[in-house]
């Protein structure tokens, strides 16, 4: 199947809703002449978010009727914003989600990136999670404890702020671990706290069937939302390589409109529960998205 959308009519279509034209491949050539195809590489974090529906459904694919260009988007999961920024710099990715801290670091290093859209406020989706039996009930208990956190991430930024706020600078051990390494270190008993999000967070909290059956669920110590309330807000943004945005402005406008509409659709229905959802559905955390190879 091929999803086609005409940027020249985005305003009128979006005023009436989220409209797509779906056609069979065999109908493409005689009706929609394609002068070139652009393969777009898009990086996302493996967390359940409204904007990821665009990857799963292929809704970011676009046919530009003015330039006769077809944009085909392939989506790749990223473990952290630091790695995603490096891939944007190397050209491995054209667009990617980055946390506010990795984006600030990337811009400070001179990477030519463009902020397109703020996709989410971190809130309760990430935080610091404590190993059961570690006797950590408040930040002052972090003395001589080991914290696993991806360096350069939004959580690293907030952990450093928290330690400084409570006068604990240099009194806790920080290990630079990716989300998958946090899971391994948790199983091996090498860390007392995981400062993380996504699949690592779900694993430590044992959500959605994840987690080590031999270890009790972690206890949340503090969320990104609480630390934000104390003065260190964090966000996730969609950013793009500047050269790519300069060369494909109509596609960039289209993608930003798609993600914005998905977020708006979700927020318009916030608090509504699908009657088909199980009664304990709020505890059912969707499995992380897998790489989406879009073939039509």
UniProtKB/TrEMBL annotation:
| GO terms under biological process | alkanesulfonate transmembrane transport
**Main localization category:** periplasm
Its keywords, alphabetically, are: Signal
Q: Where in the cell is it found?
A: Periplasm
> Per the record's keyword annotation, is Signal included, yes or no?
yes
Q: Which PANTHER family match?
A: ALIPHATIC SULFONATES-BINDING PROTEIN-RELATED (PTHR30024), TAURINE-BINDING PERIPLASMIC PROTEIN (PTHR30024:SF47)
State the family named in the UniProt similarity comment for this chain. Belongs to the bacterial solute-binding protein SsuA/TauA family.
Name of the protein this chain belongs to: Taurine ABC transporter periplasmic binding protein
Q: Which organism is it from?
A: Nitzschia inconspicua
């Amino acid at each position: 199947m091929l999803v086609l959308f005409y940027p020249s009519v985005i305003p009128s279509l979006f005023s009436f809703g989220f409209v797509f034209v779906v056609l069979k491949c065999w109908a493409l050539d005689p009706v929609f002449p394609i002068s070139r195809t652009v393969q777009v590489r898009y990086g996302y974090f493996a967390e359940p978010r409204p904007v990821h529906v665009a990857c799963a459904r292929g809704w970011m694919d676009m046919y530009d009727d003015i330039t006769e260009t077809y944009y085909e988007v392939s989506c790749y999961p990223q473990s952290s914003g630091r790695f995603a920024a490096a891939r944007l710099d190397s050209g491995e990715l054209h667009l990617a989600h980055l946390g506010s801290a990795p984006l600030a670091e990337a811009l400070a290093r001179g990477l030519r990136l463009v902020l397109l859209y703020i996709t989410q406020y971190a809130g309760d989706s990430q935080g610091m999670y404590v190993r059961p039996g570690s006797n950590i009930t408040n930040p002052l208990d972090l003395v001589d404890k080991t914290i696993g956190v991806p360096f350069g991430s939004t959580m690293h930024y907030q952990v450093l702020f928290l330690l400084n706020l409570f006068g604990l600078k240099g009194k806790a051990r920080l290990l630079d671990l990716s989300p998958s390494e946090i899971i391994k270190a948790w199983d091996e008993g090498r860390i007392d706290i995981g400062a993380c999000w996504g699949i690592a967070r779900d694993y430590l909290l044992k959500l959605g069937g994840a987690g080590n059956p031999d270890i009790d669920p972690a206890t949340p110590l503090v969320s990104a939302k609480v630390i934000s309330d104390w003065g260190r807000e964090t966000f996730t943004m969609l950013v793009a390589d500047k050269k790519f945005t300069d060369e494909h402005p109509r596609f960039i406008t289209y993608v930003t409109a798609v993600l914005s509409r998905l977020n708006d659709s979700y927020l318009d229905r916030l608090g509504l529960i699908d009657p088909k959802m199980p009664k304990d559905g709020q505890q059912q955390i969707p499995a992380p998205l897998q790489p989406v190879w879009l073939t039509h």
